[in-house]
């Protein structure tokens, strides 16, 4: 964190941070429609098997409900105690996700829409490392290996 930066949000910024602290119910599913609209296009980002496709969608939803809000909460946290709580929640979400990775990519050998859904949060975690004390290795060795592969 910059030595010249104010340690917490004030004024309108503080109001904005406060308004965005609660969990949101909005989940974006737009990527799913590409597979449905163009089922013969290869490579597929979702598995052909309906059970595996559902499994992928469940984990995309997990990212939307657990990784995204906790990542953003950690980014926005202004006090040490809120940063610690948000970092612990994000580490927990990443650890849960990493336990389900089936290969170099989430579903196994092929890069999938699940990997797409989490990739942005992986490639931007350097911000958390530099400013919020986050470290991939603290999550787990499996998470670090997966995140390094996706990145």
UniProtKB/TrEMBL annotation:
Alphabetized Pfam families for the sequence: GST_C
InterPro entries per record: Glutathione-S-Trfase_C-like, Glutathione-S-Trfase_C_sf, GST_C, GST_Omega/HSP26
Domain named GST C-terminal: residues: 49-151
Cellular component terms per the entry's GO annotation: cytoplasm
Name of the protein this chain belongs to: GST C-terminal domain-containing protein
């Amino acid at each position: 964190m910059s030595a010249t930066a104010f340690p917490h949000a004030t004024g309108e910024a503080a109001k904005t941070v406060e308004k965005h602290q609660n969990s949101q119910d909005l989940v974006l599913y737009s990527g799913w429609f590409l597979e449905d609209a163009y089922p013969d296009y290869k490579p597929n980002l979702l598995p052909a098997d309906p059970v595996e496709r559902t499994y992928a969608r469940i984990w995309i939803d997990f990212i939307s409900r657990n990784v995204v809000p906790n990542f953003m909460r950690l980014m926005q946290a202004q006090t040490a105690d809120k940063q610690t709580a948000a970092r612990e929640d994000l580490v927990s979400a990443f650890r849960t996700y990493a336990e389900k990775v089936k290969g170099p990519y989430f579903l196994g050998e092929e890069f999938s829409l699940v990997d797409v859904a989490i990739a942005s949060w992986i490639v931007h975690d350097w911000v958390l490392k530099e400013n919020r004390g986050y470290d991939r290795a603290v999550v787990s060795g499996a998470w670090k290996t997966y995140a390094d592969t996706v990145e």
